[in-house]
């Protein structure tokens, strides 16, 4: 065996694949091991078309033309199979006569380089996509974005900045933007930005920037450095956000809080505020002066600690319940003054819930004088109540006790008239006058007892009354008088069939009005009485009693006043107590009585039972 020549050994050791194709029919001559990966098991002397391995078909078609023309050919990054990629080079070589003797085929595996190039290409595409997406996001967001370098040069601003300032896109950003900053803010802004770039940190500050219309608006500028350790930052990326309205609201809120604090300090009452948990956070100046304690000494539960010792536990429990439920707090307690004197105070607190959360606002109002006055008035009221009760008891007892002597006089008078005769021409008239006087005295005593009894009945419980049944019951008791006078009674209660009222009081009112209508009927026509209940537009229950009787004279029909024992028609028997009782019952229950009347035609009584209760 002939040993390989040094040139051949060098070709075998090359990192690239090398093969020779000999003659015009292109038979394999020399094949090194690196080329085996490409041509496979091809042997010397074998036609290349018979053992092409993974050589590209396009290259196989070109090999005869390269041999015929003697022109070299190079193909970069040719895929050779699913996993390999080669740079292929075909060079013709010549014999001693200068004729093309064959082709030298070289293959360099560039698979890793191609993969790296492909990855780099994909990364470049991804970077471009991300850059485009970031640009879209920054240029559509409601803020202005910018980029500056370490020297303070502005390298980029978003279109929002141009729209806000009204500057043209050709403007020198580095030179123009400081001139748009408010003169009072310019030096501060330039200093803080320069200090941040020098130290390699970010910044966040507010300043006023001139808008396109010449108005300065407050903006918040924030920026962070682009960091690539260990190198110093080169670029700063940031955004400008308009905070003008927030700044104005904050200023207005600070002014409002200052004014409210001044107002609270000027009020001569103990004013305080507490957190949602019920811990006091603020005391006005009057509280400090009144208690003689500092805010620190008062602490978060100051007003509770100032209460009378025996009242502190109950007040604290009520305060905890109010804080837990959110219900208003109110109560009267004795509060210690700076001189140690306890004075009565009304303590009130209400919860306010807004965007900043629930808070409590409270006051402690000194009511010492009112409390003492209320005690005096209560004592006087109790004394008057006892005196009034004693007077009613005396009147009731006196009227009851006086009726017995009256009855005795009537009996003696009847016996005297039956057994004794007088020779007097006015005997009959005198006897009738005495009889009338005794009857009036008895009626007066009965009316006095009725007045006292009515006063006591005003405290009877209220219930829902059926107007139809009640009126029928009252009219049934007056049936003899109705039949005697031939009266016609119309009851119309369909609009308001029920009423919340005292049963005894309602019976007394209606009985007195109907009996008066019968008593003071017109002599030339039978009585016609209409009882009607209805509701006013405000929902107030009303009872109307209308008759066609004698009528009466009224000074103020809307607010009539009926005096005890006062009478207009003296020719009709009566004591002048009925209408007084009606007005007293109605007014004592929160209602009022209105009267319209025409002399000789009739009278209408309108009873507004109450302005608070509604009909059932």
Automatic annotation (TrEMBL):
<dbReference type="Pfam" id="PF02518">
    <property type="entry name" value="HATPase_c"/>
</dbReference>
<dbReference type="Pfam" id="PF08447">
    <property type="entry name" value="PAS_3"/>
</dbReference>
<keyword id="KW-0418">Kinase</keyword>
<feature type="domain" description="PAS">
    <location>
        <begin position="256"/>
        <end position="327"/>
    </location>
</feature>
<dbReference type="InterPro" id="IPR013655">
    <property type="entry name" value="PAS_fold_3"/>
</dbReference>
<dbReference type="InterPro" id="IPR036890">
    <property type="entry name" value="HATPase_C_sf"/>
</dbReference>
<keyword id="KW-0597">Phosphoprotein</keyword>
<feature type="domain" description="PAC">
    <location>
        <begin position="329"/>
        <end position="379"/>
    </location>
</feature>
<keyword id="KW-0808">Transferase</keyword>
<dbReference type="GO" id="GO:0000155">
    <property type="term" value="F:phosphorelay sensor kinase activity"/>
</dbReference>
<dbReference type="InterPro" id="IPR036097">
    <property type="entry name" value="HisK_dim/P_sf"/>
</dbReference>
<dbReference type="InterPro" id="IPR052162">
    <property type="entry name" value="Sensor_kinase/Photoreceptor"/>
</dbReference>
<dbReference type="InterPro" id="IPR004358">
    <property type="entry name" value="Sig_transdc_His_kin-like_C"/>
</dbReference>
<dbReference type="InterPro" id="IPR000700">
    <property type="entry name" value="PAS-assoc_C"/>
</dbReference>
<dbReference type="InterPro" id="IPR013656">
    <property type="entry name" value="PAS_4"/>
</dbReference>
<dbReference type="InterPro" id="IPR001610">
    <property type="entry name" value="PAC"/>
</dbReference>
<protein>
    <recommendedName>
        <fullName>histidine kinase</fullName>
        <ecNumber>2.7.13.3</ecNumber>
    </recommendedName>
</protein>
<dbReference type="InterPro" id="IPR003661">
    <property type="entry name" value="HisK_dim/P_dom"/>
</dbReference>
<dbReference type="InterPro" id="IPR005467">
    <property type="entry name" value="His_kinase_dom"/>
</dbReference>
<dbReference type="InterPro" id="IPR035965">
    <property type="entry name" value="PAS-like_dom_sf"/>
</dbReference>
<dbReference type="InterPro" id="IPR000014">
    <property type="entry name" value="PAS"/>
</dbReference>
<feature type="domain" description="Histidine kinase">
    <location>
        <begin position="397"/>
        <end position="613"/>
    </location>
</feature>
<dbReference type="InterPro" id="IPR003594">
    <property type="entry name" value="HATPase_dom"/>
</dbReference>
<dbReference type="Pfam" id="PF08448">
    <property type="entry name" value="PAS_4"/>
</dbReference>
């Amino acid at each position: 065996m002939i040993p390989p020549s040094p040139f051949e050994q060098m070709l075998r050791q090359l990192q690239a694949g090398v093969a020779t194709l000999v003659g015009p029919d292109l038979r394999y001559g020399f094949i090194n091991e690196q080329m085996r990966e490409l041509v496979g098991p091809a042997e010397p002397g074998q036609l290349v078309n018979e053992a092409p391995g993974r050589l590209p078909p396009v290259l196989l078609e070109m090999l005869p033309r390269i041999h015929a023309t003697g022109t070299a050919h190079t193909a970069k990054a040719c895929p050779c199979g699913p996993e390999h990629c080669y740079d292929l080079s075909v060079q013709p070589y010549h014999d001693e006569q200068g004729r093309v003797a064959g082709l030298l085929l070289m293959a360099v595996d560039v698979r890793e380089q191609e993969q790296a190039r492909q990855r780099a290409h994909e990364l470049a595409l991804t970077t471009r996509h991300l850059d485009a997406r970031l640009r879209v996001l920054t240029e559509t967001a409601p803020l202005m974005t910018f980029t500056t370098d370490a020297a303070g040069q502005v390298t980029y601003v978003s279109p929002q900045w141009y729209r806000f300032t009204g500057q043209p896109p050709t403007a020198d950003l580095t030179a123009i933007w400081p001139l748009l900053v408010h003169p009072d803010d310019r030096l501060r802004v330039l200093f803080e930005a320069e200090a941040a770039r020098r130290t390699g940190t970010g910044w966040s500050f507010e300043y006023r920037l001139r808008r396109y219309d010449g108005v300065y608006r407050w903006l918040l500028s924030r920026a962070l450095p682009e960091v690539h350790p260990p190198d110093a930052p080169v670029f700063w990326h940031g955004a400008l956000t308009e905070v003008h309205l927030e700044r104005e609201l904050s200023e207005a809120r600070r002014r409002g809080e200052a004014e409210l604090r001044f107002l609270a300090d000027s009020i001569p009452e103990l004013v305080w505020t507490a957190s949602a948990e019920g811990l006091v956070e603020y005391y006005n100046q009057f509280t400090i002066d009144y208690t003689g304690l500092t805010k620190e000494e008062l602490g978060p539960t100051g007003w509770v600690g100032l209460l009378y010792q025996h009242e502190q536990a109950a007040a604290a429990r009520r305060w905890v319940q109010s804080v837990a439920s959110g219900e208003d707090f109110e109560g009267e307690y004795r509060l210690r003054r700076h001189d140690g004197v306890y004075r009565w105070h009304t303590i009130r607190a209400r919860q306010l819930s807004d965007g900043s959360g629930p808070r409590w606002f409270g006051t402690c109002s000194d009511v010492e004088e009112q409390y003492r006055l209320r005690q005096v008035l209560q004592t006087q009221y109790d004394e008057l109540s006892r005196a009034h009760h004693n007077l009613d008891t005396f009147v009731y007892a006196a009227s009851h006790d006086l009726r017995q002597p009256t009855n005795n006089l009537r009996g003696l008078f009847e016996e005297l008239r039956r057994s004794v005769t007088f020779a007097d021409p006015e005997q009959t008239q005198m006897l009738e006058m005495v009889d009338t006087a005794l009857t009036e005295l008895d009626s007066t005593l009965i009316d006095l007892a009725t007045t006292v009894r009515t006063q006591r009945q005003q405290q009877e419980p209220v219930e829902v009354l059926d107007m139809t049944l009640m009126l029928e019951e009252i009219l049934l008791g007056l049936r003899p008088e109705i039949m005697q006078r031939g009266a016609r009674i119309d009851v119309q209660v369909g609009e308001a069939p029920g009423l919340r009222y005292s049963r005894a009081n309602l019976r007394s009112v209606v009985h007195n009005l109907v009996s008066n209508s019968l008593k003071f009927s017109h002599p030339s026509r039978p009585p016609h009485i209409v009882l009607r209940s209805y509701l006013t537009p405000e929902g107030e229950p009303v009872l109307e009693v209308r008759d066609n009787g004698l009528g009466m004279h009224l000074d103020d029909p809307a607010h009539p006043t009926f005096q005890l024992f006062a009478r207009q028609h003296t020719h009709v028997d009566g004591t002048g107590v009925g209408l007084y009782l009606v007005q007293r019952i109605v007014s004592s229950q929160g209602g009022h009585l209105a009267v319209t009347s025409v002399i000789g035609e009739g009278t209408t009584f309108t009873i507004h039972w109450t302005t608070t209760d509604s009909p059932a």
